[in-house]
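So, could you explain the following?
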Amino acid sequence: MLSETHRRSIHTSLTPVLGEEETDALMSQLPRPASEMPVTTSHFDSAMKDLRIEVHQGFTRMAMWTVGAVVGGTGLSAGIAAAVAQAVGAG
């Protein structure tokens, strides 16, 4: 794939030989960088589908970690409460 610098250099070199209009016509036939290509509906739909999957997976992971933290925190709180109750009862 030609960089924009190469495209300009080729255009500058060919213009004196072919003329502006012919050089433009020839350059229009060379492949453009992917960043300059229009996005097709199917490519956009595919990218959006991938994004939805990633967001869903991220949300699922976050929810699992949150539930795990709540359950773990509840268990830790119960353990501390039992230890305090035992210490107060023994004292």
In short: Helices lie at 4-18, 20-28, 41-90. The mean pLDDT is 91. Residues 84 and 90 are 10 Å apart (CA to CA). The chain has two domains: 1-37, 39-91.
